[in-house]
Amino acid sequence: MRLDVKVMSALLLAVSASLAHAEEKPAFLDPGLAISVEADEAELSQETNTSIYRGNVRLERGPLVMSGKELRVSRSTGDERISATLTGSPAQAQFRDPAAPTTPVIARAQAITYTTGTEVLELRGQAQIERGEDQLQGENIRYEIPLARIQATGEGKERVKITIVPPEQSAEEKP
Fold first, then answer.
1. Which of 47, 113, 146, 159 has the fewest CB neighbours in a 10 Å radius?
2. Rg for the chain (alpha carbons), in Å?
3. Backbone dihedral angles phi then psi of residue 99, each to the nearest 5 degrees
4. Which pLDDT tens digit goes with each residue over 24-80?
5. How far is C-alpha 103 from the chain's CA centre?
6. CA-wise closest residue to 9 among 130, 121, 17
C-alpha cells in the first residue's frame, strides 16, 4: 500500500503538533510519572489502598516536591487517582507553574492535598503561595495547576491578601 504525499504530510504535521503539545505540558502532569516518598516510618494497608508516612516526609513527582510531618496517600479503585494529604507546621510544596516556568512556586499551609489526574493542590489552614515576590494568603487556597487557576478564601475576619510586585524595568525603559 502506497501513501499519498498529501496524506503523509498531514500525518507528519499531526504527529509533530501532538509532540509539541506534549512538550508544553509540565512534567508532573504526565500520568506515567512515579510518586517517590521518603519518611522516618511508614504504615501501608493494601486492604484500604492507603499508606501513612511520618517524620521528615518528602514526596516527589517530577518537578513537584512536598515536605512535612505526616503524609496520607490513598488510591481510588475506580479511576486510579492518587490523593496525597501532607500536614505539618507548615507543610510545604514547591513546583514550577506552567504559566511562569522560570520562577518556582512555593505553597505552605497546615495541610496540603495533591491529587493526580486533576493536578490540583488544596491548601487548608493559614495557606500561602509565593511566586518570586508575588504572594497570596488566605485560610484556604485551591490551585488548579494545568489551568494556572487559583481560588482563595478567608475565614472569619481574616481576608484574602494579595501582593503583586511589578517587574523591574531595565535602565533603558526607565524615564
1. 47
2. 20
3. -75, -25
4. 555 566 778 889 999 999 999 988 899 999 999 999 998 899 999 999 999 887 777
5. 14
6. 17
Contact between residue 95 and residue 114 where contact means Cβ atoms under 8 Å apart: no
Q: Percentage of the chain surpassing pLDDT 70?
A: 78
Cα angle 128, 143, 114; round to 5:
95
3-state helix/strand/coil string of 127-159:
EEEEECCEEEEEEEEEEEHHHCEEEEECCCCCC
Give the contacts of 50 (CB within 8 A, at least 6 positions apart). 44, 72, 73, 74, 75
Alpha carbon separation from 21 to 14, 26, 112, 167 (Å, rounded): 11, 10, 29, 28
- Cα separation, 109 vs 124, in Å, equals 6
Q: What are phi and psi of 78, to 5 degrees?
A: -75, -55
Give the mean model confidence (pLDDT) for residues 112-135: 94
pLDDT at 69: 98
Cell numbers at 117, concatenated: 489526574
CB atoms within 10 A of CB 23: 7
Q: Which residue has cell 514526596?
A: 59
How many CB atoms neighbour CB 149 within 10 A? Answer: 11
